[in-house]
Amino acid sequence: MPESAQPETPILVSPAAPESPVTFPPAFLWGAATSAYQIEGAVREDGRTPSIWDTFSHTPGKTAGGETGDIAVDHYHRYREDVAMMADLGLTAYRFSVSWSRVQPTGRGPAVQVGLDFYRRLVDELLQHGITPAVTLYHWDLPQELEDAGGWPERDTAYRFAEYAQIVGEALGDRVEHWITLNEPWCSAFLGYGSGVHAPGRTDPAASLRAAHHLNLAHGLATSALRSVMPTRNEVAISLNSSVVRPLSQDPADVAAARKIDDLANGVFHGPILHGAYPKSLFEATRSVTDWSFVQDGDLEVIHQPLNALGLNYYTPTLVSAADPQLSGPRADGHGASEHSPWPASDDVAFHQTPGDRTEMGWSVDPSGLHELIMRYTREAPGLPIYITENGAAYDDKPAADGTVHDPERIAYLHGHLAAVRRAITDGADVRGYFLWSLMDNFEWAYGYEKRFGAVYVDYATLERTPKSSARWYERAARTGVLPEVDAR
């Protein structure tokens, strides 16, 4: 945002009830999303080398049960049956990420063509089934060799990412029109280098802010690199997990706490990406951690590339207040257990459980937050198309005696959030697609395999895929453009 601008005070939005039936525009994309490390497996095949998530998951105590993505759901070998399953479920789009270390094992130099060939085959398979591919270049799996050289806190990593982006763009740009540079750079920077609950597991507040800037720089450099090798018709976007930050009360101290977290969650990325400047209030709030001298002349111009679209990922809102100075120690913020905070210089902020029903992640179910988020970015970037690139919920799904998997809670979740998307469209937002997270159960990062986000159930012993009732509900929505009733089977 412009340096003179301040983020709006978060306001609780309660949109009007949706019309019935809830219908979507004919060209709306009905998709599902995955990421490479969570589903591919085959971590040592065809020249692939370790990423930071290979190293992290193999480090004792970092993931639930010591589980890893070594096999995951074996999508690398089963992609054809998975694409056929997508077609059977009526999907019109599929968002997947490319494994950087499968394509460029050291993060430098020429590509391994056999690694690129996997993605060529996957794209061809999708197109043959009438499914629009959407490529995410980075979903948290930095090649370990680049982390050994300093990782995202080092400026050079941004330039290595641009080279990688150009390689993938040259290989797939003739057939893939939808491109996303980074997925949730907030998680990469602040969970990876701040709280340490994600790979690479570092806990350095100053490094997390440097990482955030270099991720922004990587996005800008990669956007230019992609456009230098791809047809002009292709869309370049970024997926942000922008938070809906709400104050516990309208007390000025609580409102100030919400503004600080809004800067750290949202302004740190959308400021330079959409508006060409970091919020001044962000600099002021973090001066005890860093002087921001790593922002060099010309960086903001590089970062502030025109986008063709914006990806938004949403799960649950964030509720904060000023911290009670009598209390000390870590406070729950919904981003995993750690004695280190992912929020630099925010010891004066307390995080609170938001009201309402909860998913297995402990996150409250609040579709109004998605509507609020879409409308905020409709104002932040007027005229910029929006895609919901992730939205979904984890529940304790179990097969019935006959092998079917019924998940009515997920159906209700999807209905509520898709209705919120449709309300936003009615209110003037240009939302062009929705990607359910996730296509199927998979490796859920530090939670291992204990959290199931998939619309398709995976038996991890046999790797058999079984569409849940939510998958069939979503299929009907995708085929008709109308949301079925929540109690439909």
Automatic annotation (TrEMBL):
InterPro entries with a match to the protein in the record: GH, GH_1_N_CS, Glyco_hydro_1, Glyco_hydro_1_AS, Glyco_hydro_1_beta-glucosidase
Gene3D superfamilies: Glycosidases
UniProt-annotated stretches for the region Disordered: 325-363
E.C. number: 3.2.1.21
Active site: 184, 390
Gene Ontology biological process terms from the UniProt entry: cellulose catabolic process
One Gene Ontology MF term: beta-glucosidase activity
Family: Belongs to the glycosyl hydrolase 1 family.
Protein name (database record): Beta-glucosidase
Species this chain originates from: Streptomyces lasalocidi (Streptomyces lasaliensis)
